[in-house]
Recover the amino acids of this structure.
């Protein structure tokens, strides 16, 4: 938990934010901070105390969601060094897996889609940049070092190192996320 919080904080510092600004004025950091603590409690093995603390965390998550417009349930799996750069309208499904060093822009939805055996949620690799208002939906895999362009709908798996754009998203080049992350 501490490692996750430190690595998230460091990502904000790399973008030039001052400590005061990160802690008191950056809603993305608030949401990640709350998530890291709640996720650690969710993983704990102390049955009675765990349930009590999770109820408190649910209220805390809802407060952060109202204030910041960012919904990150405690059961999501997010790697270290996540960066949410802007306020609001970010919805992440409770079963989503997100790798390390990912950037999530405003307006992003990562959710469930599909039918039958293909119904599910995305698994997102490391160092993925997700542009503003992008939607990633379904039981798909997003490879490492990908860029998902703004206003895109990604509902098919993509290999590592690709840039996709559009509705539905198509591969537009093989430039990786280097330079975005």
């Amino acid at each position: 938990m501490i490692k996750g919080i430190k690595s998230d904080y460091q990502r904000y510092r790399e973008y030039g934010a001052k400590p005061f600004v990160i802690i008191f004025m950056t809603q993305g950091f608030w949401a990640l901070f709350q998530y890291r603590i709640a996720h650690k409690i969710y993983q704990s093995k102390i049955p009675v105390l765990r349930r009590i603390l999770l109820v408190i965390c649910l209220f805390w998550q809802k407060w952060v969601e109202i204030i910041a417009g960012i919904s990150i349930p405690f059961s999501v799996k997010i790697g270290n060094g996540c960066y949410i750069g802007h306020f609001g309208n970010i919805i992440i499904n409770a079963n989503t897996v997100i790798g390390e060093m990912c950037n999530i822009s405003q307006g992003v939805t990562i959710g469930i889609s599909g039918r039958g055996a293909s119904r599910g949620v995305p698994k997102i690799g490391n160092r993925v940049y997700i542009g503003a208002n992008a939607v990633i939906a379904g039981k798909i895999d997003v490879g490492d070092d990908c860029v998902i362009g703004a206003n895109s709908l990604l509902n098919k798996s993509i290999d590592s190192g690709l840039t996709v754009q559009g509705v539905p998203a198509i591969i537009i080049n093989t430039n990786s996320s280097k330079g975005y992350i």
Notes: The chain has a mean pLDDT of 93.
